[in-house]
Amino acid sequence: MAQVVAGSYDCDVVVVGGGIVGLSTAYAIGRAAPGTRVTVLEKEPGPARHQTGRNSGVIHSGIYYRPGSLKARYAVRGAAEMVKFCAEYDIPHAVTGKLIVATDRAELPRLHALVQRGRENGIAVRELCAAQIAEYEPEVRGLAAIHVGTTGICDYGAVARRLAEASGADVRHGAEVVRVDRRPDRGVAVLTAAGDIVRARVLVNCAGLHCDRIALLTGDEPGARIVPFRGEYYELARPELVRGLVYPVPDPAFPFLGVHLTRGTDEGVHVGPNAVPALAREGYDWRTVRPRELGATLAWPGSWQLARRHWRYGAGELHRSLSKPAFARAVRRLLPAVRDEDLVPTAAGVRAQAVLRDGTLVDDFLIREAPRAVHVLNAPSPAATASLPIGREIARRALAGLAGSER
After folding, report:
1. Angstrom distance (rounded) from CA 160 to CA 138
2. pLDDT digits 0-9 by tens, 71-107
3. How far from 215 is each of 298, 320, 327, CA to CA, in Å?
4. H helices within 132-270, ranges in order?
5. pLDDT exceeds 80 at position 255
6. What is the pTM of this model?
7. How far apart are alpha carbons 353 and 208 in whole angstroms?
């Protein structure tokens, strides 16, 4: 592989990963520093093929996230910006609001805590008694609920495509990164599977499911590993049962939000997801097994610590994955009218969840800097919602690195 030679750069910043975070970063660099040459390398034949294009399309309000965290700040800000961006570029979207419903008395304190958290994050919420739930969702049953008016839906695939067009970047598809030569005194040279070499002053790693691998290729120890969790979805055969978005009260021990109901921009209703270990980074079903990737996951001590700590929760998720009636029973806690046959399988997604060596699930967005590199090491949901402010933050760090490299 050719080495980086000062003055021989193909671009100023090379972004690895053409999902919504990578494209938002390219877009933000173009707006903050016009004339900066940006190349985006995406291994798939088009944008948004993984986390960006395989989620439920929700514009999250930010109510769930710890006050002061990046997730809380960027989701609240990002939700408003995403609605504005979609309106400006005529991208399908709607501000629907959503219900978070307690179906068991043990959930009531957690529901009240969400009200307090929402207010700390500057989000207006309305508390509902059991009878008031029907004002929003006649078929939903619960002991109490809260209504969050700023939640919405959009087409994130369309957002990613528009960001790519508006960024002015050189976006290359089918460009899988297989090697990185980083010279702190010179820059980075990136080799793709097709044999192309891209030389840049600064590398930005927005590789999602593969971000830890790219960090290691660059010579940086990320301190965490991506443990992929598959989220399986169904489509509701009777979408008229649900008007908008309905969520359970989440388990505070997990960053997953539980099985929920989401009416999308296409007027269909998604049901899910659960959260089960995937047997490959892009393991969208049980048949997809990549031994090398699975071996790497099992070799990470944090994977075993996580399993030991949360095996009971995981067993329930596995049961719902393998048993449609069990999945339907979970849905009926919120929507009693649902029958097993109302659930039609649809495309699954995989969450790129960073796990520390001690088994701790990284709860916040995680961005780390290194010489000539910025690594985004944890950016699962609500990263799509928060992608515009996240992109600006990554761009700020990349441009600071660029300025430092030119001294």
Report:
1. 35
2. 999 999 999 999 999 999 999 999 999 999 999 999 9
3. 19, 34, 37
4. 133-136, 156-167, 211-218
5. no
6. 0.95
7. 9
